[in-house]
Amino acid sequence: MTHETGPVVTLVSDRLVLRPFRASDGDGLATFLTDPDVLRFEPYGAFDPAECADEAARRAQNADFRAVCLRAGSSDLIGSLWFHRTEPDAYRTWELGYVFARAAWHQGYATEACRRVLDHAFADLGAHRVVAHCDPRNTPSWRLLARLGMRREAHHRSAATFADDDAGRPVWHDAYVYAVLAEEWKA
């Protein structure tokens, strides 16, 4: 699998392996994509196991997704990262997203995985800027972004909708925008 900047490389940190998805990762995805609480702030609902198998095959063809696995003693997925280069390419900007299994919460795995991706973005990909969005109600997510040294740049009011109410009207929610620049990351 290749990406616009070359082959997708497997990234390794102290406790984690961040690798391209495999079509066989459906069972691993099911450990968190079937959990409505994990997906509460995502733009999609819970998957069933068959949908997880299809999603694994789809992600295996998409270089923007990385499977997050424990490094020692297990190849089981504990999460997923999305890292996408935004347009135009000349802006050298990437967007980061993440979802982690409930069993992986509160252990620093998401921070470690995101930090490794940011290191790769700035050191190897020549990124100028990395951004991330999150729902303000998702306190663990925006705290993670702040821990990474990303700055809250905006609070967009009624900026996104993922569902309709019983009358068919969109249910709007706010969004935070976080970012970090290459020179800030190096510092």
Task: Give a brief outline of the structure.
This protein has five helices and ten strands; from the N terminus they run ββββααβββαβαββα.
Number of alpha- plus pi-helical segments: 5
Contiguous runs where pLDDT drops below 50 for at least 5 residues: none
Radius of gyration: 16 Å
Helix content: 25-40%
**What is the mean predicted local confidence, pLDDT?**
92
Domain tally: 1
Distance between the termini: 32 Å
What does this protein structure show overall?
The chain is α+β, with helices and mostly antiparallel strands and 187 residues long. It has a single domain (2-186), classed as Aminopeptidase (3-Layer(aba) Sandwich), CATH 3.40.630.30. It is 26% helix and 35% strand. The strands form two sheets. The protein has an eight-stranded mixed sheet, sandwiched between helices. α1 crosses α2 (49-60). The model has no long low-confidence stretch (mean pLDDT 92).
Please supply descriptive tags for the structure shown above.
5 helices, Aminopeptidase, 187 residues, 10 strands, alpha+beta, single chain, 26% helix
Give the topology:
Elements: E1 2-3, E2 6-7, E3 11-12, E4 16-20, H1 26-33, H2 49-60, E5 65-70, E6 77-85, E7 93-100, H3 109-123, E8 129-134, H4 139-147, E9 151-164, E10 170-181, H5 182-186
Parallel strand pairs: 7-8
Antiparallel strand pairs: 1-2, 3-4, 4-5, 5-6, 6-7, 8-10, 9-10
Helix pairs in contact: 1-2
